[in-house]
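Structure ticket #2291
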Amino acid sequence: MLERFPGWEVVIGLETHAQLSTVSKIFSAAPTAFGAAPNTQASVVDLALPGTLPVLNRAAVERAIRLGLALGATISPRSIFARKNYFYPDLPKGYQISQYEIPVVQGGSLTVQVVPATGEAYEKTVNLTRAHLEEDAGKSLHEDFAGMTGIDLNRAGTPLLEIVSEPEMRSAAEAVAYARALHSLVVWLGVCDGNMQEGSFRCDANVSVRRVGATAFGTRAEIKNLNSFRFLEEAINYEVRRQIELIEDGGEVVQETRLYDPDRHETRSMRSKEDAHDYRYFPDPDLLPLAIGQAWIDEVAASLPELPQAMQRRLGDAYGLSKQDAATLTASRAYAAYFEAVVGALDGTQAKTAANWVMGELASQLNRAGIEIEAAPVTPQQLAALLRRVADGTISNKIAKEVFQAMWDEPSGAADAADRIIEARGLKQISDSGELEGIIDAVLAANQKSVDEYRAGKEKAFNALVGQAMKATRGKANPQQVNELLKQKLA
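Resolution: structure written out below.
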């Protein structure tokens, strides 16, 4: 993007709202399940009826601690809930309960792999400012009411953790890499289900531009509620272009909140950007300060799973995998567990081959089917059994893909599914030298032109002869033996 605008630098910070994976809301016992009929999951507390009082959900706090520990952040021993005052139809109380001066999580960092459109991939560490607990508002519905707006308060009171980064990202690619890594981490920890279509994970991007070498930040615009990584990238790139062109044309960027229109691929103004004083924050008198003792922190720390970066290092050390392969295999806990189950079934051997199959054939099938790896019809044990048949020469790698497809299309759950398919379809690799010699003799006799060209120095002719031999055996010949026998006969 900035190649078009030499002399400019972009400054990006993200505020990410992760809906916590609790069964009930942050200050009431109302459920948080997605998809319920409007206003069927709003309790008297969520509706702010007179006389009701909020009660903090311990499970929401625990999830905040989990993420804070995973990010290497400081868990505040004492944090305060505040009232963030603003008036909107889907906010029954006229204020949102949030945290302002003392959040539950302070600091921390996340190291991410950035893969730019051009140039080499690189690592970047993004520092975090804070992560604070708050309640979600309801939802305004405009589409189904001619000239009117409906209000659904099911989301009111849903627990959120707002994770605020420092303004340290310098491109849309870095912002997307950070958002993806954070998304992966909250799902890995079980803090959030990460469902972006349902609004469980959404980002606000603060974007500004400045001349290269400048130290002061430019005026920022905040792009609200970006619920896909593609929209995040598109919105940032559009906003960067808009701001630079505006300044170069003699205009000034105004501080405002903007929305991204994915149909028009542009951001548009929503409202002037508020500052903290506009919300008149003050401590909520209905909620005591949140006290988190060291014993509770230690208890949560002991329950943490192996974190992605630690697993990446372990996979690299144990199996000799590249950083990129290890990062791909740890994109989710389920993905990593599948790979380790395959290698475990192979007694720790063929790790690179297993990684290639999980990242290649398996990933392609999952993508085509639109399902997650947990729902894959081919089990890790079945894939391991298939790879053993390639290793022992029973089938070629090409035939293995045919067998894998059959296992995928007709799932059986049987551990010996690969063997059954190989036997039923007669797919065993031909490794008998005598049988192969007869086939190769016939191929050479039928392709004298290719034979002459090879002997005249044209290497491509040899590949043509190999292809003919494989065709004659319907791909069942051992490729290595075919190559060796052909070379002997053509010598």
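Closing remark: The mean pLDDT is 91.
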